[in-house]
Design goal:
The structure is a homodimer of 245-residue chains. In chain A, helix 6 crosses helix 7 and helix 7 runs parallel beside helix 8. The two termini of chain A are 27 Å apart. In chain A, strand 9, helix 7 and strand 10 form a beta-alpha-beta unit. Chain A has 245 residues and is an alpha/beta fold. Chain A has an eight-stranded mixed sheet with strand order 1-10-9-2-3-6-4-8, with helices on both faces. Helix content of chain A is 31%, strand content 22%. Chains A and B meet through helix 5, strand 4, strand 5, strand 6 and strand 7 of A and helix 5, strand 4, strand 5, strand 6 and strand 7 of B. Chain B binds a DNA duplex (19 and 19 nucleotides) through helix 2 and helix 3.
DNA sequence: CCTCTCGATGAATCCATCT
DNA sequence: AAGATGGATTCATCGAGAG
């Protein structure tokens, strides 16, 4: 019901059974940041996404060095495999920053999904920007596997969320998403549905799926994060089983 | 200082002097709505965008029947002419709905602007959507004419806004934007700067520019809306000149 | 003047039916 | 067979008007 498979998404996804998932929740490496090859390749993900003065010692993550054409080609394949593993009527939710919205939309549709909308995630704490507008939001692109099954899930969901990034002891990954945000997004899957997460990272989506009563299958490339994800999933289960006082 | 020129943007823009504007604020017809040609083209903008049982008799607007390729080609030309009329370091702000973000980004960059960001506008009033996420936001794409001039305008602006659509007596156009939102956006232009608005509509951007102490040049195709825009601009000036009590 | 209720409505989307 | 037409749906928000 709650598993994290260690391996590359493009290798693991083809081993999954057709039509078994109700929601694909993907938080891929954005491959963004910087318009030039130098910007993309010269620094580690750590230098790229973390303020210079933030000393948290989190590990780098892989797969963040594609140009935009490569990103579209790669993500299209991932999402096409996800479509195959998804039930008709299922949803896909793919995270993106502002710069990659067009590329992510292309990849979503190239993968066979019907593009349904954009959901901004507002981050209350963000870096100010002199001379213009701050990048205060990231985005979730929503797609569906053909017509939406309103019978299975008739929920009316908000089109916008505000949530703070995890900090301090709860922070396990450089680009970790808030569990509250993921819980809200997961409600687009029917109750008891199955969630597929091809880029599990530190497993926040699994914790969220567990809290919302959905099953979870995560895929994570690095041993380091796969272990963190499994530990967090185990703990979230245990916490749930503790008696109320 | 506050003028509304009646005519087609593609005809009027070439008559403007090079390098005179500090901000291009464009709210083009989105040419969006629906997956099919029918959804996009067959109905009037009133049928397309206004609630079935709404009673207001606001006039239709023109130029909302292009397919996506046509939209990109057309908007690119508009924005290229705007770039010529803009000062180096100037900003462009272009409204879009979620579906046209990729096309609008293409047109902005094809017109020679440097894409700088996406600013969501959250609408507290929006239609719910069964089986998924509501379309609760529209978007403003931000571009610049080369490097940003931080000396002329060092402001740090929010990257996200929430504002209700005008209702009742204040409503003049089907797709009218809130003056408060436009005032906030206009602050990206330096104090006393010149704002160019190639799709003036009912002139809300002019009212906002006046309130923020920027000059305004609007272009509007239809006589109907050009007259409304001029009247609203005159009234906003008069209101400002009334003595305080 | 404040509080409350009531009713209108939204840059939508879907689907059955007709041309 | 593809395109056009028309009607039904949805609820948080906000203005108007009453108390």
């Amino acid at each position: 019901m709650y598993e994290v498979i260690e391996g590359d998404a493009l290798t693991v996804l083809p081993t999954l059974t057709d039509g078994t998932f109700d929601l694909v929740l993907a938080d891929p490496p954005y491959n963004s940041g910087g318009r030039t090859t130098t910007d993309r390749t010269s620094t580690s993900t750590h230098d790229k996404y973390v303020s210079h003065d933030a000393r948290h010692g989190l590990a780098d993550f892989a797969g963040d060095n594609r140009d935009q054409r490569g990103y579209i080609a790669w993500l299209s394949q991932i999402l096409a495999e996800c479509l195959r593993a998804a039930r008709p009527g299922a949803s896909a939710l793919v995270f993106s920053d502002w710069r990659q919205i067009p590329a992510t939309s292309d990849a979503l549709q190239a993968g066979g999904w019907l593009w349904r909308g954009v959901i901004p995630w507002h981050k209350p704490i963000h870096r100010p920007r002199r001379g213009g507008f701050a990048a205060a939001c990231e985005y979730v692109l929503w797609g569906s596997h053909g017509p939406i099954d309103i019978i299975r899930n008739p929920a009316c969901l908000p089109g916008w969320y505000s949530a703070s990034q995890p900090r301090g002891r709860d922070r396990h990954h450089i680009t970790q998403k808030p569990v509250d945000l993921l819980r809200a997004l997961i409600r687009v899957a029917p109750a008891g549905g199955a969630v597929l997460d091809p880029f599990a990272g530190s497993g926040s989506a699994g914790v969220a799926a567990r809290a919302e009563g959905r099953t979870y299958t995560g895929i994570e490339l690095t041993t380091h994060y796969a272990e963190i994800a499994r530990r967090r999933l185990d703990q979230s289960v245990r916490e749930d089983h503790q008696p109320c006082e």
